[in-house]
Amino acid sequence: MTSDADLKDLTRQIFEARHQGHLDVLMSFLGDNCIFRAAGSRYLAPLTDPVVGSAALRATMRHFIDTWDMTALEILDIRVDGNVALVHRVGHMRHGTTKFDTEIMDKMTFENGKVVECVEFLDTLQAASLLNLATISAAQI
Fold first, then answer.
1. 36 in Cβ contact with 48 (< 8 Å)
2. Which of 39, 61, 76, 133 measures 20 to 30 Å from 108, CA to CA?
């Protein structure tokens, strides 16, 4: 079993790889059948559709790195309970030319040192608006 300190360190390494845009390093932390999804209504698909498996995750992570600038998000806290890390992040993001403030919580489940599931809790209305899946005014972003 991995210690709390080890899982916290591993979690920080994952987000550092994401911030640096190192896709291969990021993928090395994910299990072969890892599931990633944003929590939310099925009506916000494809935003909330689960992404499963290495090939799909690689394509999705490449897209995220290329289109969602999260380098100004800071980790406020990491809590570990057994094999689950809860990561609270806050700060500025950019999608395309739109910059905005946000807050995100990630629930990452680990097995044998690899992420097997990541559920991201974010402002789905804000994200859906940026992806043209929902409409809100620019002042509300």
1. no
2. 133
